[in-house]
Amino acid sequence: MLFVELGDFMIVMKFGGSSVRDAEMIKKVTEIVRSSLDRKPIVVVSACQGITDLLLKAIDESFQNKLDAYLEIEKRHRKIINDLKLKENLIEDLLSELKNLLTANYFIKEKGNRLRDHIAFFGERMSSTIIAEYMKTTGLNAKQFDSGDLGLITDDNFGNASIMHNTYELIRKAFKEKVNNQTIPIITGFGGKTLNNEYTTFDRGGSDYVASIFGAALNAEEIQIWTDVSGIYSCDPRIVPNAKKIELMAFEEASELAYFGAKVLHPKTILPAIESKIPVKVLNTFDPEDKGTTIVDKCEHNETTKILALSIKNAIVIEVKSTRMLDTYGYLEKAFAIFSKYKKSVDMITTSEITITLTVDSDKFVKQISEDLKQIANVKTYGNQKIVYVLCNPKFDKNEIVSSIFRISQEIKVNIHMLSMCYDTISIGLVVDDKDSVKLVKELHKKLIET
Ligand code: ASP
Ligand code: MG
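Above: the input record for the complex with magnesium ion. Below: its predicted structure, written as tokens.
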């Protein structure tokens, strides 16, 4: 048997929940993997669509001795197994372990994240088992692995685990010992295991992170994130139907967009890949021929338009005004300590000599924060606001871009309440009334991207 040398595996293919939601999709995924065999793929899979949510619901139900969510999970997997004509008892052990744990939890009433992770992980364990087994029936040399058994070792911060300093090394070692280079490993996403062999998960959406960790550890030449859209667009196509796909993007640009609400992938999850200079492609399982979006460390843009993309994020504006701020230091620190106390993240900030204006994305804790702030300042809040976020084309002068934005907003009579622009700008944030945000985005898209 030939075991692995570094460089034997060249690409990591990660398939998200919608890509493996039923038998039809699993067949599609199998063909996509087959057509990439010459690139020596490693496959990372999510749970079938909706299953992680159902597992979390099953935990809640276990406190009341209810099994509705469990039964739905069982039914959906049995149907997939049946539709793929696999042996009926393929995941019997997993199902009975899950059911026993849920039933026992009525008595134990465990609310901690250790059990939560163990249960939430069943989705990936079941999907990877089914996918590997189906691939085998079509002649592929696939083999299921738990990520944690291939060296993806984390700390025991259940629910939001971190990898260890030597995880990459452990992955390389595990691949050498356990994976034959003729095999296509089908690996669970979502998280890993502790040194004590307990399942841990990263945050929701953790499978992208798993894929980039394996890619970085094994020095893959590319990481592919297969999902249900063809990449990152110049705007949400539900708002602007003729939004354009962005073929190549720098990591920093993707981060700015995601931060302000584009949901295709969370940039944090591809950081290991970017740090190792491995390109990440976002591809569409429903349209595998589409080239998708490639995210790289740094890039030059071919686009000739002033702006590259637009997105919208919810905002509540908090205005903090005090003459005590005049010529003092440490005032901002005092104000922000209040936000930290409530673990509330601030999206946009602008300041003047006696005013700090900032935005948060939901009204959770806003009342308490305002009360606390009133101890040091006059406070006003404004609801029903949106941040319109503009990603600039670095080829253009930013003054030219800003003046175009203001000209256009004036033409359509949209008031911009706040503006945020950094010294070395790739992004501009604008706060407008909720009712104006779509109108402004459509017009900016038409005038600054479509023409
Ligand atoms: N199944 C997990 C979730 O739904 C992980 C993932 O799909 O990325 O969050
Ligand atoms: Mg996802």
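Notes for the reader.
The radius of gyration is 24 Å.
Residues 11-296 form a domain with the Carbamate kinase fold (CATH 3.40.1160.10).
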